[in-house]
Amino acid sequence: MSPRALRRSAAVTALVASAVAAGLLAVPQSAAADEIRVHDIQGGTRVSPLAGQQVNDVPGTVTAVRAFGSARGFWIQDTRPDNDPATSEGVFVYTGSTTPQVAVGDAVTVSGTVAEYYPGGADAGLQSVTQITKAAWTVKTSDNALPAAFALKPSTVPNRYAPDAGGGSIEGLRLRPGSYALDRYESVEGMRVAVHDAPVTGATSEHKELWVTAEPGHNRTARGGVLYPSYRDPNPGRVKVASLIPYAERPFPVANVGDELTGTTAGPLDYDNFGGYEIQATELGELTDRGLPREKTRKQSSGELSVATYNVENLSPKTPQAKFDRLASALVANLASPDVVVLEEVQDDNGPTNDAVVSADATLKKLTDAIAAAGGPAYQWRQIDPADDQDGGQPGGNIRVAFLFNPERVSFTDIPGGDATTPVKVVGDGGKAALSASPGRIDPANPAWRTSRKPLAGQFSFRGHPVFIVANHFNSKGGDQALDSRFQPPTRSSEQQRGEQAKAVNTFVKELLAVDPRADVVVAGDLNDYQFSPALDTLTAGGVLTDLVKQLPRAERYGYVFNGNAQVLDHILTSRHIRRADYDIVHVNAEFADQASDHDPQVVRIRP
After folding, report:
1. Which segments of 97-191 are extended strands (E)?
2. Which of 115, 244, 351, 462 could hold 305 in an S-S bridge, CB 3.0 to 4.6 Å?
3. CA nearest neighbour of 50 among 64, 28, 61, 35
């Protein structure tokens, strides 16, 4: 090398050394220039820069082993991390249905193909998990210490949830773990993470999973959960917990919302298609039972009409008697035997058997018999059988809405003419509003109700005053992109149909009020949407209805828990003439591991 070249090389070396000393340039800690380490595989975005490529002799320490199911494998973590907070130091080694012959604490080198696994398939819209597949490995040493777990807590999980890509994919964006919660979780994908003294925000499911929050003070409900208050704040601290500990060694805790996993819960951070980021726990905190009670509401007075709504979740004669008994007990003891009950998800008389049966009399008789046996009133019912296989829900089940009512307290005004396809109309009767058919279906031919339950209008009389009640079950959120989708913000495609359904019901209520502005109208049911949603804005447009959930204290606005978020799907709304409405969401199901339904019932007491 010439003297001039030597001087130039020395100058470059000095410049690099100065940049490193100033922290402006990170030096990779790989042992050799051609050595691939875990952080090289993970990269600084959600998709590995080495996806589809063969890697050889990637070093790491085994932190956990999944030895069950069809997605077996083990996690490794590099004990020599780089200086980039965006690159994870952990990765899953997938072995399929083969149990890997490794142990926690083994130092290994792994060779295989880098792949991105999309839970639910690439079309599901979820994020991917970086894996090493077709793997072979060599155990170098055993009983090595594990790297310290990354603590998930308010100081490490940002309050902003996800970067905004205008509805597009965030996969190509460089991770900013100090700015967005989803980026933080992705930056530690496959690594050991931990939560400490974690409040339970989603009860233990049948799949032996629960939800906790890493941000204990954020959006807490009155009973210890976390409230979903708006699209802008889906509670970034929520994380799911599953267990890799053998059940015989440590049964999975049966927890309710408000309980706590006291101490440390730790394990590699995974991602799945039923709830996003999940700690695969190799260490579980101790369950602290906070003794969450099932609520009871007060009994209506003689001058109050009580109207409840309850989604009974695919109820049919094939449902075990125990569920009928529990639903009955809740209606009698917890809801104080409401005068009228709006029911959703009542199936036909042979449940999911897919044949021509559409009648639900056997279902409703079995429920009302159970209520009477529990000490409740001798409820009667009214409903309209749907056309076979036209109302969505479980195939063959023919779910529908229905009314129960206590004839000792309130009478039903039967007006013939209602059937599956005939629309109910508003008619004038001496300056008062009435229905052309009671019960009657609202605008059943409207495309808004395609493969969805049609609302049922009924005319009741309480102490000589007419009351109009509309039972509803709007279309589900099926097809919407998940909160943790790789598309941000996620598309809520199901909203459009609910918006059209809300418009149809709003129009019907306006027609009632046009005939009689002082008409007492109650709209109730499972609307499958939030109090801040466009559908509810449409339903209340023009001030014709008040959504009563908005009158509750903020911390009490929920009756359903999904993926650790306490939220509103069921509603009771009242017309403007009803000025004294005492409304209550009665928490008996959604927060508990042991449920008769996944929805909490609601009740309103009014004075027509």
Report:
1. 107-117, 129-141, 150-151
2. 462
3. 35
Residue 436 backbone zone (phi > 0: left; psi -120 to 50: alpha; other: beta): alpha
Residue whose tokens read 């100058």: 11
pLDDT score recorded for residue 55 = 98
Q: In this predicted structure, what is the pLDDT of residue 5?
A: 36
Question: Domain for residue 15, yes or no?
Answer: no
Residue 537 corresponds to which tokens in the numbers above? 């804005």
Q: Tell me how far apart the alpha carbons of residues 44 and 291 are, in angstroms, rounded to a whole number.
A: 44
Instruction: Give Cα separations from 422 to 254, 325, 416, 446, 560 (angstroms).
Output: 48, 35, 11, 11, 33
Domain boundary among 288, 319, 353: 288
* CB neighbour list of residue 276: distance below 8 Å, 6 or more residues apart: 126, 127, 185, 240, 482, 483, 484, 563
pLDDT digit string, tens, across residues 207-222: 999 999 999 999 999 9
Nearest to 594 by CA among 254, 211, 332, 239: 254
Contact 341, 310 (CB under 8 A): yes
- What is the pLDDT, as a whole number, of residue 430? 81
Q: pTM, whole model, 2 decimals? A: 0.93
Name the phi and psi angles at 435, rounded to 5: -105, 150
Measured distance between the N- and C-terminal CA atoms of the chain, rounded to whole angstroms: 100
Q: How many residues does the chain have?
A: 608
What range defines the domain where residue 83 resides? 29-141
- What digits encode the pLDDT tens for the residues 82-117? 999 999 999 999 999 999 999 999 999 999 999 999
- The pLDDT value given to residue 97: 94
CA 411 from chain centre, in angstroms, equals 38
Check if the beta carbon of residue 600 is closer than 8 Å to that of residue 583: no
Residues 96 and 238 placed together within one structural domain of the fold: no
The residues, any chain, with a CB within 8 Å of residue 153's CB and separated by 6 or more, are 195, 196, 214, 215
How many domains are there within the chain? Answer: 3
- Whether 428 maps to a domain, the answer reads yes
Rounded Cα–Cα distance for residues 182 and 508 (Å): 43
Strands (E), 361-463: 380-382, 400-405, 411-412, 426-429, 432-435, 440-441, 456-462
- Alpha-carbon gap, residue 108 to 57, rounded angstroms: 8
For 560, what's the count of Cα atoms within 13 Å in the CB-facing half-sphere?
Answer: 20
